[in-house]
């Protein structure tokens, strides 16, 4: 299936979910993630903050659990340069004051920059993915530009409200394949 078609279908499906369903699926994803991965060696973990208007996976459950169980992990979030279509990265301190950017994505007001090469694990937002680890996001390519800047041993984990969908047929050379995807039902490993 073409990315544009899959993107459109998944956005429609997400919009139909009531907020209680998003919350339940998000918590199940968080539990799957925390039960599956050995986070002891992780020192720096990058994750996205959800856009509630897009019915994205709510990562706040994971953040709370990381702070409680792994306080030594530095949590990092993307800072979006909309004009330049790039991401920079800043620490999400426990007392961080957040403000929405022009797309409604929360970002820290005061930023302590973090370099890509320090990231041990990156949690990637997904609209959809297939059994080969190809992903569909919003189509702007932010993560396809960001992920190659990480170390080769950085672990990439997609978070998805749905299980793997049909094979994505229009994969391009610049598309970054995931190593793992976590859904409410299971964890997929691709490589």
Automatic annotation (TrEMBL):
Family named by the database record: Belongs to the 5-formyltetrahydrofolate cyclo-ligase family.
UniProt binding sites for substrate: 49, 56
Taxonomic lineage from the root: Bacteria, Pseudomonadati, Bacteroidota, Cytophagia, Cytophagales
Residues the record lists as binding ATP: 3-7, 135-143
GO MF assignments: 5-formyltetrahydrofolate cyclo-ligase activity; ATP binding; metal ion binding
Co-factor(s): Mg(2+)
GO BP, sorted A to Z: folic acid-containing compound biosynthetic process; tetrahydrofolate interconversion
Name used for this protein in its record: 5-formyltetrahydrofolate cyclo-ligase
Key words of the record: ATP-binding, Ligase, Magnesium, Metal-binding, Nucleotide-binding
Enzyme Commission (EC) number: 6.3.3.2
Catalytic activity: (6S)-5-formyl-5,6,7,8-tetrahydrofolate + ATP = (6R)-5,10-methenyltetrahydrofolate + ADP + phosphate
The keyword Magnesium is assigned to this record: yes
């Amino acid at each position: 299936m073409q990315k544009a078609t899959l993107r459109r279908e998944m956005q429609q499906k997400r919009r139909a979910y009531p907020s209680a369903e998003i919350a339940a699926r998000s918590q199940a994803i968080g539990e799957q993630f925390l039960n599956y991965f050995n986070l002891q060696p992780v020192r720096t973990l990058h994750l996205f903050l959800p856009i509630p208007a897009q019915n994205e996976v709510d990562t706040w459950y994971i953040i709370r659990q990381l702070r409680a169980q792994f306080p030594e992990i530095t949590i990092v979030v993307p800072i979006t340069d909309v004009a330049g279509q790039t991401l920079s990265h800043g620490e999400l301190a426990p007392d961080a004051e957040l403000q929405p950017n022009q797309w409604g994505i929360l970002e820290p007001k005061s930023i302590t920059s973090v370099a890509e090469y320090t990231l041990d694990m990156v949690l990637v937002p997904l609209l959809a993915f297939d059994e080969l680890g190809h992903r569909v996001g919003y189509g702007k390519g932010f993560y396809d530009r960001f992920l190659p800047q990480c170390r080769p041993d950085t672990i990439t984990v997609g978070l998805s409200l749905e299980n793997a969908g049909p094979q994505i047929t229009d994969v391009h050379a610049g598309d970054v394949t995931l190593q793992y995807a976590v859904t409410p039902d299971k964890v997929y490993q691709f490589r």
